[in-house]
Amino acid sequence: MTGARRERRAPTGSAANPERLYVLTGGTEAAERAALDLVTLIVARGEAPPTAPPEQAALLRMCATPLSVAELSAYLNLPFSVVTVLLTELLAARLVEARAPVVRSALPDRTLLEAVMHGLQQL
Amino acid sequence: MVSVEPPPTGREVPYVRVLLLPAVLMAAVAAAAAALVDEEARPAVAVCGAVCLLLVLAVAAQAVRGFRTARRLRARHAHQIAFLKRRTDAHEEQSVRLGRDLLPEALLRLGRGESPAEVVGALVDADPVHRDLPMAGRALLRDVLEIVDNERAMRESAQLAFVNIARRVQAIVHRQAAELREMEEDHGRNPEVFDDLLRIDHGTALIGRLADSVTVLGGARPGRQWPGPVPLFSVLRGAMSRILDYQRVDLHSLVDVAVLGTSVEPLIHACAELLDNATRYSPPQTRVHVTAVEVQTGVAVEIEDGGVSLSEEARARAERMLAQAQVGIDLNDLGETPRLGMAVVGRLAQMYGMQVSLRQSAYGGVRAVLVVPREMLTTAPAPALAHGIGAAAVPRVNEEGRLIEEPARPAKRHRQPTGPIASPPLVPAVVAESFDPPQIEEWTPNGLPQRRSRVRSSYTRRLAERAQAAPAREARGGDGEPEPGLWIEAFMTGASGSDETSAEGRRHPASEEEGNHQ
Predict the structure, then answer these.
(1) Can you list the alpha helix ranges (DSSP code H) found in B224-371?
(2) A6 with B201: Cβ contact below 8 A
(3) Which of the residues A6, A9, A17, A61 would you substitute to probe the B interface, choosing the one with the greatest number of B C-beta atoms within 10 Å?
(4) In 3D, which of B278, B259, B264, B263 has the Cα closest to residue B368?
(5) pLDDT higher for B434 or B476?
(6) What mean pLDDT do residues B295-324 have?
(7) Which InterPro entries match (chain A) (predicted)?
């Protein structure tokens, strides 16, 4: 997990960007976040209003075709939590629609878990 | 004494003429007396008359001489008084000249960077009007100049110290901001941690603004540099991110220009101070509106709040503060409860040629207008519209349609803690080295695997083994205590600067020293 985390691209924007992330989310108080997953698919349902901040406009532009939250986060170079806050606002304004990802089985079976465990031990 | 002096005559009356009258009178009286008395008393009376005549003559001569001496003395006295009066008048004129002409001119020259000796040389010795200044006056002038010079140097060094400290705080804040951004990336999937990080981030930004303010008031330029042009929208959001109540700020209809990299930081700072003023002096439920429109000389950023209107007196005070700051303000003028905002804005406006004015707002509050000159702006495309949107928003491809490999994020460096190094763990390394994943041997009735520790020896025995191993290691040498004298050699090489680490230390001797003293 740490390896995957470290391979993420550098935040190229932050070097030349004076804004901090809390201005984007509109507050440091625990912002309301819709129950979005990394793999939730987002589709735009309307045009961005002219008063929308550039991040929301960009989200709407990109979601013309369905994109997962993880992809949005990567393309916008914004952390997942910021993207969910922005998407929550758009969802409340009914400008985007969230589609649940493929449903996984509720409980994985024991043989799979055991196989994983043994595999880990062999490492 | 006679109060009325006779007019001074050029030639003194001879004694004979003065003494003639009493002598004749006395002679006549004596002759009359001799004629009146009997025949036999006549010689005696004549003798007495002669003696009296002599006496009168002597007394009169003495008196006349005394009078003449007194008159001569008086004349000399008057002459002396006149001379002294001339002297004191000259002195007074000289001191007035010293105070009115010489000293201001000297202070002016001192302010232009000349040394006290140079100023005295140029003003006194080279000037025919002031050349007759006595030694004492010259010494006085020189002493005053030296005291003023010392005072000025002390003030400058105190200010420099302030700026220096503020710069160090800035450096720490910038580093922390960068690290926080990295942490925000890392913990972006954990909303609770993320929100906490944002709060810390906000606090750090506030500290940074304070340090920037001190730097600006100390006469230095804002420290941070931005590599390229930044859009005005991002600049204003950057200003928002440095104030406490950024949620109350609304950005409306901003003109689409970018700010040159060298001018980004001052503009952010000036806008942040004005926004801070606007949010601080208006009720918490009102909004602050920011617009930016193009004007003849550049772009006007208007910041309007819905607070109480500034009274005429308060407005005059704020404008005075702005004007004063434009002339030049220093940290000593701020007083005990400093209201830094306006002073900082004024100072920045003066440094970068911006114009600030405070007017009554249509919303009832204050409307601050900051006119940004054209020299600070550019219409060239800025690298990003906002947070990474634009250049980096979609995966980039080259001409052949292949993805361009983006540089991977550098591995996170965890800096060594500066405190004492933790003591080695108590469990011997021998045991840790031979540790490998435990084999699962049995299962609990619930179906969960049960593990057994492979370290079968007891703790006391392990300690004993370790104690045995230690002398053996030392006998092998290498990682034991260095020979006595070796450490002093290391110290000497470090002090002579041949070592890398000592070179590093030499580069910041001041910070090291301060660190030791704290």
Answers:
(1) 232-240, 261-280, 312-327, 340-352
(2) no
(3) A17
(4) B278
(5) B476
(6) 80
(7) DUF742, WH_DNA-bd_sf
Radius of gyration of chain A from its Cα atoms, rounded to whole angstroms: 18
Q: Is-contact A17 B234, C-beta < 8 A? A: yes
pLDDT in tens, B342-396: 888 888 888 888 988 888 877 778 888 999 999 888 887 665 545 545 444 445 5
Tell me whether B208 touches chain A (CB under 8 Å).
no
Share of chain B above pLDDT 90, in %: 18
CB contact under 8 A, A23 and B241: yes
Q: In angstroms, rounded to a whole number, what is the distance separating the alpha carbons of residues B251 and B231?
A: 14
Domain with CATH 3.30.565.10 in chain B: 227-387
In B314-468 the beta strands, taken as DSSP E runs, fall at: 355-360, 366-373, 377-378, 440-443, 449-451
pLDDT at B284 (0 to 100): 86
Residue B268 is predicted with a pLDDT of 93
Q: Would you state the pLDDT for residue B62? A: 92
Cβ neighbours for B391, distance < 8 A, ≥ 6 positions apart: A12, B383, B384
DSSP string, B1-21: --SSPPPPPSSPPPHHHHHHH
Residue whose structure tokens are 């660190």 = B515
Domain B227-387 has CATH 3.30.565.10: yes
A95: pLDDT strictly greater than 80: yes
The complex scores an ipTM of 0.72
The closest CB to that of B388, out of A7, A23, A77, belongs to A77
Strand-pair partners of B371: B300, B355
Question: In this structure, what are the phi and psi dihedrals at residue B402, rounded to the nearest 5 degrees?
Answer: -90, 150
Q: What is the reported pTM? A: 0.62
